[in-house]
Structures are given as C-alpha cells and as structure tokens.
Design goal:
The protein has helices at about 15-35, 35-75, 80-85, 90-110, 120-145, 155-210, 250-265, 270-280, 280-295. By secondary structure, it is mostly helical. α5 packs antiparallel against α6 and α7 crosses α8. The longest helix has about 60 residues, at about 155-210. The model is unreliable at about 230-245 (pLDDT under 50). This is DUF2637 domain-containing protein. Keywords: Membrane, Transmembrane, Transmembrane helix.
Length: about 300
C-alpha cells in the first residue's frame, strides 16, 4: 500500500505554515505572560540577576577603596608592623556596617516605613565621608607639600569617584530589594484575587447550572374554593287552599304580604302576624297558620 498524501489548501506554503506556528505560539504565550505566578518567577529571576551584578561591582569597588584606606592608614609602615595588616580591615568594616544598615533599611522600606531617625542618616554620611577622605587625602598630599611633579590628577579623580559609586551602589541595593518585594507582593495579591474570582465564577456557573437545569414541576394543591353562600330560598307568596279555607281576595292578599314580611325577616309566620294583617278572629288566624305549616311553606292551591 502506498502512503496517503495529506491534502493541503492551495497557497499553504512553507512560509505560511511558519507564520501559523508563530501565531499559535503567540496565542499560548499571551495567556502565560498574564499568569501571575510566571510574572513572580520572572521578577525574582531578574532581581536576582541585577543584585548579583551590583554585588560583584560593589566588591570590586571595595577592593579599590580598601587599598586606598590601607595606604592612608599604614603610611610608611612595613609588613612587619601589625598596623600595616590592621589597616586592611578598616575599609571592609566601614563597608560592612554600611551594607548591614542599608539591608535593614530595605526590609522596612518594603513595608512602606521610612528610616527617618537623625542618626540613621548621620551614620551613613560618616561612613561615606570617612572612606572618601581616606582615599582622597593621600592623592592630594603632594599638592599640600608642594610636590607638583608627583601629583596625579587622574588617580585623585578615581579615588574620589569610586567611593561615591560604592556608596551609591550600597544605597541602591536595598532599594532594589525593597521594590522587588513590593512587586512580588502585588503579583501574589493579584494571583490570590484571580483565584478568588475563579472560585466565585465556579460558584456562579454552578448556580447558573442549577437554574438552567429543568426541575420537576411540583403539583401544587388546588386552592380551596370557598363554598358559595347559600341564599335563603325564595319564598313564593302563599296561596290559601280553596278546599280548606276560602278567604276573600283582599284578606288573601293581606296574608300573603304578612307571610312575605315574616320570610324576609327569617322567621315563621305567627298568629299575631295574620291577625294584624287580615284582622281576622284568633281561631281563623290559627287555622291559616296551621294550614301554612301543614303544607311546609308551600303556597296554597
């Protein structure tokens, strides 16, 4: 069997494929560049590289200033004199004190606290001034003694500039450390915020899923319909039975009116009602009421 050749779109040249790969790589890098953890790692790496370079050049400057201070302090002493050896420790001591103070300053600066004590600034100025003076004085002594031919202006300038540079590097190192710590804290804070938002987004998605998911419809009990109020049955006007009692039309109408009034008041017709309406004897009124009760309220025929 022969190998099956993959079909490509017309115009898909080698250059197009390379550009497509670069675009895909750039899309992946875009997400990585915004990653807080990657930014923290890059910041720490760059800071470590910067501090390593500064410490290296600071050490070179201290070697130079230490030699100048030793020459100033030892003078004409020889190697057999202990002062000649002790003079080598003065400049490292001054530099060590300065670096120790500045390192602590870097720590408090990272928390936004300024070392505003007077002796804090005085100590740094004394250390710088001492190193500068002990390096410059031996270079300008030929001028003081009038030995112009032995004066070297280039050496004097270098001995004056290098202590200032060393002091400046020692000042910059703690500032860089403080700013690096601040940037790392900001990056970690952003990462924590992003993680918190991710948890909230997951909770929101979970809530939205619960909302979107169809839930079984519960059959709500039918509301109880109140029974309609029973109205009193309509009372038809009484009809006096002709076979039992024969009443004149005007008397019959009066009995009907009395019966209607009693029914509207929710009570039964009484003998007094009949007598008051029809003006009949008591016996006849009792018969009329009895006839109505016998027929259970139905109209007379």
């Amino acid at each position: 069997m022969g190998l099956r050749r993959t079909r490509t779109k017309p115009g898909t040249t080698r250059r197009v494929r390379k550009l497509g790969d670069r675009i895909s790589e750039a899309r992946q890098l875009r997400g990585l560049v915004r990653d807080p953890d990657l930014n923290a790692v890059e910041m720490e790496r760059q800071g470590r590289r910067t501090l390593t370079g500064l410490w290296f050049f600071l050490s070179l400057g201290l070697v130079f200033t230490t030699a100048g201070v030793q020459r100033f302090l030892a003078g004409d002493a020889t190697t057999e004199d202990p002062l000649w050896w002790a003079a080598w420790t003065v400049e490292p001591m001054f530099a060590g004190l300065l670096i120790t103070v500045l390192n602590f300053e870097a720590v408090i600066l990272s928390y936004g606290i300024q070392p505003d004590h007077d002796w804090w600034r005085r100590l740094k100025r004394v250390l710088l001034t001492s190193t500068l003076a002990m390096n410059v004085i031996p270079q300008v002594m030929p001028l003081i003694r009038g030995q112009w031919e032995t004066f070297n202006p280039g050496s004097a300038a270098v001995h004056a500039i290098i202590p200032v540079i060393v002091y400046g590097i020692a000042e910059v190192i703690p500032v860089i450390q403080a700013r690096q710590r601040q940037v790392l804290l900001l990056i970690y804070q952003a990462a924590d915020t992003a993680d918190g938002n991710g948890v909230e987004d997951q909770a929101d998605e979970h809530d939205r899923a619960d909302v979107d998911q169809p839930r079984p419809v519960e059959q709500a009990p039918a509301p109880a319909v109140p029974a309609p109020a029973q109205e009193p049955p309509a009372v038809s006007p009484p009809r006096v039975p002709g076979t039992a009692l024969r009443l004149p039309p005007d008397m019959l109408q009066a009995v009907k009116d009395a019966y209607t009034r009693a029914a509207s008041e929710g009570r039964e017709l009484t003998t007094a009602d009949v007598r008051r309406a029809a003006r009949v004897p008591e016996q006849l009124a009792e018969k009329i009421v009895a006839e109505l009760r016998t027929h259970n309220g139905h109209a007379f025929a």
